[in-house]
């Protein structure tokens, strides 16, 4: 037990000395038992006395004197009393009628700084991926016949940079990521924007870092060299080996893309050495061989990092992942997680970012009031300069909260923050995984339920199982290689 020890007790059998289990999730690693506290997201390692007290309370509330009597053949009385105090202090136990701990319903300040701006430099794409949330059957913005320009202008991009610099407040660093459509269709504006942003950030005594997402079809040697020279992080959208990639990620004429992108990706990875090149995989019912996909992208293509995400779509689509397939997918995720742990115990890198990202959140004690930073520390900008909750909502009037020219509409932003707070998601209030999940992705909720504030109930079991797996990994590292976790302190 790590909390400070507070001693003292009462000999009278009053209600104050009756204890029951409170809101936590237990997990074990290498024989050690840990508690993941809800909603604080704190993690505590139990000693033998703490474990014995919690076990004794499994059957229901007990008086302190009863606990002492039950355990006095194993532990000294003072030890039991001290441990009860410690468990009470961390809120692992408490009065049977004590109110449930909830995340405070406090809104962030109106001047909460913008950390990341996603610039949708085009809403056009040279591919016709069946499952695409932007152009497919579940799209929420008419990118083909809508009124927004197909390409962001240089002037709008520069206004967006000024918006980022202003909205980032006193922060010395901010991040700008370029998105599409296919981002590289507007490469000239991308080039000019990086140069402009770097100059303006220097004038403001700030630093802006850059990244982009691309389908890799338009990569050329000169573009790759520019990305490397300008230290632009690159994530490639790719779904796996040739049969997988060519099954859904196709050109408008139906031709597969694998043979086109393969040499371009290899050149990118060989040339761009300043930042790890990552792959972003969309998993569908038609491509669920997670292990094969991961092995191909890392071992054969050379990606340093790979993140895998289930498709965002309605359940009746033929590429929607079925409940049984979700279970099989989770099993493969867990196999990769075991690999990740084996590497971490040896102080070696493993590229499965689904584990890396969750472990970092666990280590930092993240307890989310919101599913993500959208609408707050992260905003998306459409091609016409409208500011949306995130890049997935870019161009949607319903989810627009300002413009780069006029700034954020604080009333609309505040209403969004009220509606999407975890306190408003009653379905989440009894879930132990809510500090990490907080209801999930707003865009996923909008597609699935028609309401971005709805909890993603269709993935609750998945989230709890995956979070438990990552907690076990964290506990294992805490026991066998705690120094590895120091990399997440920054």
Overview of this structure, please?
- The protein is α/β, with parallel strands linked by helices and 490 residues long.
- The chain has helices spanning 48-57, 64-71, 77-89, 154-167, 187-203, 221-229, 242-248, 258-271, 290-300, 323-345, 353-363, 410-419, 434-437, 442-449, 460-480; strands at residues 18-21, 24-29, 32-37, 43-46, 62-63, 93-94, 116-120, 173-179, 207-214, 233-237, 278-283, 305-310, 378-381, 386-388, 400-403, 407-408.
- The chain folds into three domains: 15-94, Outer Surface Protein A, domain 3 (Alpha-Beta Complex); 116-361 and 372-410, TIM Barrel (Alpha-Beta Barrel), CATH 3.20.20; 419-474, no CATH class.
- It is built from 15 helices and 16 strands.
- It has a ten-stranded mixed β-sheet with strand order 12-11-10-9-8-7-13-14-15-16. A three-stranded antiparallel β-sheet has the order 5-1-6.
- A hairpin with a 4-residue loop joins strand 13 and strand 14 (386-388).
- Helix 6 runs parallel beside helix 8 and helix 10 (323-345) packs parallel to helix 15.
- The chain is globular and about 75 Å long.
- The chain starts with 17 loop residues before the first strand and ends in a 10-residue tail after the last helix.
- Mean pLDDT is 93; it is low at 1-12.
């Amino acid at each position: 037990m790590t909390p400070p020890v507070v001693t003292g007790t009462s000999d009278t059998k009053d209600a104050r000395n009756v204890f029951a289990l409170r809101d936590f999730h237990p997990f074990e690693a290498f024989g050690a038992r840990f508690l993941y506290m809800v909603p604080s997201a704190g993690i505590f390692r139990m000693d033998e006395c703490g474990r014995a007290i919690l076990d004794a309370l499994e059957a229901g509330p007990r008086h302190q004197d009863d606990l002492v009597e039950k355990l006095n053949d194993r532990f000294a009385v003072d030890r039991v009393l001290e441990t009860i105090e410690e468990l009470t202090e961390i809120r692992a136990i408490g009065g049977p009628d004590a109110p449930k701990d909830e995340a405070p319903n406090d809104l962030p300040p109106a001047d909460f700084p913008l950390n990341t701006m996603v610039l949708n430099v085009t809403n056009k794409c040279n591919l016709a991926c069946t499952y695409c949330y932007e152009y497919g059957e579940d799209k929420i913005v008419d990118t083909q016949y809508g009124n927004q320009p197909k390409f962001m202008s240089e002037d709008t991009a520069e206004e967006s940079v000024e918006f980022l610099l202003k909205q980032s407040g006193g922060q010395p660093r901010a991040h700008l990521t370029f998105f599409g459509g296919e981002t590289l269709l507007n490469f000239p504006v991308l080039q000019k924007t990086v140069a402009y942003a770097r100059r303006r950030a220097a004038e403001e005594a700030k630093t802006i870092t850059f990244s982009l997402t691309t389908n890799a079809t338009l990569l050329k040697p000169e573009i790759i060299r520019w990305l490397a020279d300008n230290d632009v992080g690159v994530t490639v959208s790719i779904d796996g080996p040739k049969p997988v990639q060519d099954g859904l990620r196709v050109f408008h004429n139906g031709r597969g893309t694998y043979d086109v992108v393969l040499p371009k990706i290899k050149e990118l990875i060989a040339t761009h050495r300043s930042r790890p090149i990552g792959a972003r995989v969309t998993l569908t019912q038609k491509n669920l061989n997670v292990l094969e996909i991961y092995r191909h992208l890392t071992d054969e293509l050379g990606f340093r990092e790979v993140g895998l995400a289930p498709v965002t779509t309605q359940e009746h689509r033929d590429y929607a992942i079925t409940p049984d397939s979700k279970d099989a997918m989770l099993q493969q995720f867990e196999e990769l997680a075991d690999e990740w742990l084996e590497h971490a115990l040896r102080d070696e890198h493993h590229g499965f970012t689904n584990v890396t990202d969750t472990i970092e959140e666990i280590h930092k004690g993240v307890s989310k009031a919101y599913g993500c930073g959208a609408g707050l520390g992260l905003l998306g900008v459409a091609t016409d300069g409208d500011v949306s909750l995130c890049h997935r909502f870019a161009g949607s009037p319903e989810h627009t909260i300002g413009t780069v020219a006029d700034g954020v509409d604080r009333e609309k932003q505040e209403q969004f923050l009220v509606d999407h707070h975890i306190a408003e998601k009653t379905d989440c209030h009894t879930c132990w995984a809510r500090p990490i999940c907080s209801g999930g992705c707003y865009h996923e909720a909008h597609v699935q339920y028609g309401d971005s504030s709805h909890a993603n109930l269709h993935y609750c079991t998945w989230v709890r199982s995956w979070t438990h797996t990552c907690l076990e990994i964290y506990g294992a590292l805490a026991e066998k290689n705690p120094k590895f976790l120091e990399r997440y302190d920054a």
